[in-house]
Queue: 4 jobs
Job 1
Amino acid sequence: MEKEPGLVEELKITVLADDYAGQNSPFWAQHGVAYLIDVGVNGVRKRILFDTGSFAEPILYNLGKLNLEPQDIDLIILSHSHFDHTGGLVGILKAMGKDYVPVIAHPAINRTSFAAEPFWFDAGYPMAAARREAAAAGAHWVPVASPLRFGTGMLYSGTVPRENDFEAAKAIGLYAIENETVVPDEIMDDISLYFQTAAGLVVVTGCAHAGIINVVNYGVKLTGEDRVTAVIGGFHLIDAADSRIEKTVAALRKQPGAKIYTGHCTGLKAEARLLDAFGQDFTKLCCGMVINPV
């Protein structure tokens, strides 16, 4: 059987960081996200690290448990600025020990993002300093706000349009500094990844601050894929109203056969509802988990 052109032929996603370690697990958990995405096209294999958790040490430990080396990573992509997705960047780059590592991220990742209650707290990693340290450790920064094809069948979303009424852009108690003025931070740097496969579209997100349905719909629009085979990542429904959770579940149910993998910021209530709706097609993410969506 001939292979379809323009598709990812092999895809394996390994959870290196999540808030949950799993039962009787040898892996270390932490607050944050990091996925090692192993892709194969036309006999070429590459490893992408999507997000870097809050700290490098648990990720490096988990890599060792999986008999993997940080040097195996070819490319790093950051989903957004928050510390639990970027905090391990410099430590991982230093462990990789390479002279050149592309690091793709939205340009707005460099903004100041903070909470003011009960006291000042940096929500975003101090990226200005991190960029210098990361560059010294081999990072080549690629700031891009538009969709970017970074491999055959592989697409970086860029800014995700926020079109659903129930997922309209809302601040979550965070603020940013724009033109020396304080404004609500709507986390417009939130990006996701799309992988086109023979089985359909695989969607991988960090926190889905843009709204998980907006993320999925944008992937379908960009790629022209009419099947979504898997949606993987944090859905950021942890503080969502019941009505938003129900609308999210209903929208996901419109993708027949889609498997749902959630963790991190999704929240227990939303995960329970997704389990009820999807049954065996729902999986809670945990550190060390390996997903083979195709």
Note: The longest strand covers residues 10-17.
Job 2
Amino acid sequence: MADLHELTALDQWNLLQRDKVTPLELADHYLARIEALNQLVGAFVTVTADAARERAERVQASVPRSAPLWGLPIGDKDLWQRAGVPTGFGSRLLTGYVPEESDEIVQDLDAAGAVSLGKTGAPEFGLPCYTETLVAPPVRTPWDLERGAGGSSGGAAAAVASGMLPFAPGSDGGGSIRIPAAACGLVGLKPSRGRVPSGSGLESLGGLVVDGPIARTVEDAALLLDGMIARRNGRVDHRFAVAAPGDDTAFLGAAVRGEGRYQLGVMTTSAWDLDYEIELEPDALAALDCAADEFAALGHGIEQAALTPNPTYGPAFTTLWKAGAARIPADGEAMALLEPLTRWLVEQGRAVGARELGAALAALTAYERSLIRQLSSFDAVLTPALAMTPRPLGWYDVEDAERNFAQQVQYTPFTSMLNVSGLPAITLPVWQTSEGLPMGVQLIGRPGGEAVLLSLGAQLQRRIRWQDRRPPVWDAPSAHLR
């Protein structure tokens, strides 16, 4: 049999169900992978080996096997609190902080039967789209250790891409699942606002931040998404009055079947086109052309699409991003512990007045309606995932905050507008450059349209078979593996 990490998460789940492997054996396998590879990749900031083994044995003994993630290893993003485990939020400000209670998403993953192996790296308070902090080594894409894994779920993506986890949950407030998934050659799904009860977006400013899966295959992404959606007796345990459109049906079936023919738009315009000079590298366009050609060969309708330029989006989103940072618990001398970008965002955010914030929220609500209306004639819309190849470590200007923000937008122009609109979106790793770097595309769905995105992704995966690709660090030194 192939090594466990060579198998998909779904295959590993089937082995667990048939008693071919135990949760403890699986946890031990991945802990050995982490020991061998983490010093190269930097995916984990904390490894909780003893707690993971205890948890694996407890899952074996007392968690029903019907739990959707029974016995499967994951990592908690270091923006999520787990009781008794250091949670640093990527910042010197919270060095040594150990929460007493776990966040809801952590509780839901536990209830689903998952086994946490530790905390995956994130940038300071999840604000940048790259994971290079002052408290830990940079998180590197396993495809080129001189380049970053993206962010803010950078550690989660790097762990999956290097085989340190079968899949991993992340959060996405402006692209933070899709960006690192694309930079690491993975599938990353941002669900609709309201889809995941404990990471719905409804409790965050502007409804931006939702939780979702990062995986090597579309089926594994659907499996993890189903596990993140708290279901009781087959129905979603909604915790808000507002939920994403659709019924309570699990998504794995749509990903496994991969059926249907759809009308697709192809688009290279973004919400940022009036605010920054957005240039698409040839490899970004090559990935887009590859996906469009494959979808056409599969019988889907293909039509060019373009957004109407909107002068309100950029200023409004920037105001909201700053305002969100204003709540970071730093005052007085503690401000010096923040990184320059974070400190700038906090200071700028605290200077935002109620009238300015209200105007920004109103502008983004109007943009949400406009975007949904403009894309409504398509079942899904295809864009590049990123405008450039994965960025070299140290590429971002850490001293000039405004230039830093501009660099982030120019690298990731297609992501944040989907957080504003609440639409689902999935990145798919369809292309490799001549240097072997991953390049992906993004599919945007209709409200509640995750099943269509998963079906389309599965069809493309069957043709391209990106799940067979392995980064250079994949083959760990055997001496380190138990």
Note: The radius of gyration is 21 Å.
Job 3
Amino acid sequence: MTKFLLLLGPSGTGKSTIIRELRQMDERFIYISPYITRPLRENETDKVHISDQEMDLRKENGEFLTINNLYGIRYATPIEPITKALEENLFPVLDWPISRMEIMTHSFPGQLYAVYVCPPSWEELQERIGKDQRNKDAGRIEAARKEFYEFKTGGYEGLFDFQVISYNFGISEIAKKIYLNYLQNI
């Protein structure tokens, strides 16, 4: 039996880049593309854009595990690709907010492997978020600051299985560590 791999951690820690590395390492990793209500950015192919109305309709039809509201955008997690990947012994993977872990632990008991991706320092995280031009209203910085503090003070103890530090120069090595630990725990 495989497990649903969740990458946790503040915005700017490189979770999306790690997911791309994992998918290159092993084709069994299946990225669970979230549905979002904002238009896709140029070259953004890992998400599915839908309108608010379509998201509401799909929610009513039971297609989504949940809808998260982050930074003024609605993100919906589809159920079917997760269950299908698990049934086919593939490795579903998703970037997930640690503040919403109860949804996953309730929906997939015993089927999760959660990895917390921590920045090397608060200063490094601020720099990363500032570079990507997605922090126009300072919401990402504030959310990252709160999560970083909560993590550092032990507020997330017991919510993840493994932890890595996301150094800029070592994404391939980080992905390899996650991969090896994941394989040992499925």
Note: The mean pLDDT is 90.
Job 4
Amino acid sequence: MTVEQAAHAILRSCLEQMEGNRKAVASGHSPEGVHQMRVGMRRMRSAFKLFEDVLQPGTRMSREIDWLGAELGAARDWDVKGTHLPQGIDMSPLRRAVRAHARQLRRSAGEAVASKRFDALLRSLHHFIDTSGWRKRAGDRQVKALAQPLDDFAKQALKKARARVAKRGRKLKKADEHGRHRLRIAMKKLRYASEFFEQIARRKPRSKR
């Protein structure tokens, strides 16, 4: 499998996860639907980061993905807040307020994914993936890199992701909240990259011995 073939497979997987949860999110009543669509979107962002040397989604598409991320992220964050309130004291008024706000944000996320704007984003993503839209801005070096076997690319990508985690991990003891958040993000990107390549490996036929 080439780097480009892997990019196709990985991006399609992310898009399928986003589309597969649209109905649940649009209902405005599914915290899990919001979570799963957000995971699909974050996986797609991680995929773009993983392949950033050989393909880019373009400014407009990136902006629309950020818009969707903000809608889903707000709803997900408040759903999580509602399940992590302190125990042992009467938090009923606060709990009701948090849950009400979470429901409001889920409805907002539902309206977002039921909108024409979301339809346009899906069409753009489908077109970008199905037509290898990244080739429009690719230079000779990128085209050559896209045609290379995946193995070396995967090794280098994972090595780079592990090095980023290690670098930020060495500063963990003195890190503030921002620093810890950056470490969490780096670890999540490493996990997504590992899962992407594992997914590809499972699809490859095993040679007979």
Note: The domain at 3-139 is CATH 1.40.20.10 (CHAD domain).
